């Protein structure tokens, strides 16, 4: 046995030296404190740097942070008719807008919004387009004219949509809908084209807060006056961009209110009288050139366009029969037909080619020497012997064939040009058609061929190359009615700037005072026109009012299809091949206050179809009493 | 005849200077909080109640003798580790699993470790010969590394570093040799790329943003930029109480919690900041003084590292608000709104007070 005690390991023994340890600790604590002080010194240095050295710059940034300059859109001017009826108004409405900067996922957000309210199919696309004109922290409109229920639904879910807000604004509305569309036009959302135009005109800044702009019609023509000028607001905003306080404000100058010379009651009468036929009516006050009525039918509802028309609605308008977007008053080019005769008669009288006693024998046919082709009277067998009165009353073609030949195309052209045929009237709407008043030069320029005498003959009854607009017809009738003062027709009657107590009258500028050789000649022609309605053989005697009101008028027929001369128009002629019915008139014949031109497309005879419309317009106008 | 001494005169009294400084700091915090919360009296009242309860807790803890605390230390540490492990299984909270829901209240086990780690270090070093030799240092590193790694995995890198640093302070105060300290510091710098590798994307983003906030002014750089604007626009004398636009208009993020110093700087200016720093410096200095006066190794190391850790919070928070350090979720001690950090901090000061109150008792 070799028992061995395990060898006792020497225990490692130590003694804590408390005094030495406490001393050691004191040194370390002092070192730590010095480190702390040094670190604090660095911090103090940093704060000193920020709060003293960088103070100015950071203070500026803090101001820029909170203060935003926001445009304040002016209220668009209202539009009234000449008797003070509101025809374009601003209604309080709500729109939904998004601040793109505040939204993380735009597409998802718009989709989520689509679940609580209906968005047009192209909402996102339109949004992206309009987004381009805004800065990122501006609000970009997504949907206009929210329903009450949509506003309420959004309010409930609002917490889900940071950066999306509903704001109130003024929305344009046209209470008379399609009745005034072709005059008023409409406003629509600003698009890139509008913006380019505004930027070029230096108006970009003025439209920063504006969402809508006049697209056509009066809204477009008088855009600058209707819009007014934008104001500015310095607002304090919080980090969400919500406005907290207005620090400074320069008020916008609201748009000018416009008073149009239109009379809604007369407009309505013309509209109703046309019924469901396509056509146009233009009525002008001969005394001042103001446009009383301007109807083009068919029309469309302008309110559809204000908030962006849907593709379906737009297709429906495009495909509607009769082209509702087409403004016949300005753009419809028609053959004037017999409505040209009074002016030719006047030309003959004034130039001494004919006189009051001059007579022509109508056999039903008129022939040029050495030309086999006959020129017809509308009445078989002719009208017999007629003077200028009878020639107008019965619309005797032969009289005017002869007169045209005697005048010659040059003098015809020059005289008719005085009345404004062949040139724009200068109405305060865009896009007016000039029409065609043929002459030798015109024909050579257009076709490169010389003028033929036969063309002079048919020009005597307003056929051939002549093209006029209803507006030109009305303007010429007004000039004839007032004895030779040709004015630019005006839709704007008066305007009232914000703050002004009264509207200021806008005068229609005088284009030309026609030369008058003898006022009696003008009376002769006007009397001839009076006989059209009131004469025993007047072509429009059917519309003579029982009231004793004297109307002067002249019917006309514009050919649509080239037609054999022996062929008669009758009920069987296909609608779209029928002639257009024209009628120009003014009343009261002795002292006219209204001149009307009416076109009923494919109506057939002017006296039958168009004359009653003219009468309805005249009566509606006179029923309202004197001018306002 | 013995002189009659009233019983209350013998109770272990906390340090009045430190207590006064803490109360002053809290009062300052409440004033700033009222502004930072947008004049919300409820928030201030809630914070006031928390501070009151915390102070009460401080006084209670200050009555516990240090040697009792020392005996409890390993158990507290063990419980802390267990809780950290349990967050892996039962954790709640957005995106990260830092919170433990106890039904009555939720708390972050990592907060416990902020106290438990320095306590454990002091406990371990207490009977050892100081300065510690190499094997002791290794054990110490394990003690601080285990909780730090667990917390970092949550992931909460900021807290993990703060917990680790409290342990490092204990080591430092224990007299660790300077060459060892510099050796570790060099190793840490060398290890930085490795740290980058293990960071989560959002953590890397924070660092990148810190290095160049203007690169993403509306995204992650926003906080730093807006905070700097607030501080700088305050100037020397500030915009005045309740008049800070950056704060009132909510440009400052987390303005009543982590970024409350930006509100203070904006409204009270450099003067306010200096006053605050002076208060903090006094508190830290007082903590170190208490530590040097303590009569045991445990008490010294614990008091010292608690005080220094407290200062690290101030340093990190102020550095973050002024753009010196990246954005990490560290509140400004006793000023920022929030319960958890108040409880931990005041409990820590309770321990300090206990060290002070019992400094003349031999254990």
Describe this structure in words.
The complex is a heterodimer of chains A (628) and B (363). Chain A has 628 residues and is α+β, with helices and mostly antiparallel strands. Helix content of chain A is 36%, strand content 20%. In chain A, helix 14 (341-350) crosses helix 16 (397-418) and helix 16 (397-418) crosses helix 18 (453-459). The longest helix of chain A is centred in the N-terminal third of the chain and has 36 residues, at 18-53. Chain B is mainly alpha-helical. Chain B has 13 helices and 2 strands. Chain B is globular. Chain B has a two-stranded antiparallel ribbon with strand order 1-2. Chain B folds into 2 domains: 15-63 and 213-363, no CATH class; 72-199. Chains A and B meet through helix 1 and helix 2 of A and helix 6, helix 9, helix 11 and helix 12 of B.
Keywords:
heterodimer; A: 628 residues; alpha+beta; Penicillin-binding protein 2a (Domain 2); Beta-lactamase; 2 domains; 7-stranded mixed β-sheet; 5-stranded antiparallel β-sheet; 21 helices; 23 strands; 36% helix; 20% strand; B: 363 residues; mainly alpha; two-stranded antiparallel ribbon; 13 helices; 1% strand; globular
Secondary structure: helix percent of chain A? 25-40%
The CATH homologous superfamily of the largest domain in chain A is called: DD-peptidase/beta-lactamase superfamily
Report mean pLDDT of chain A, rounded to a whole number: 86
Distance between the termini of chain A: 147 Å
The major beta sheet of chain B can be summarized as: 2 strands, antiparallel
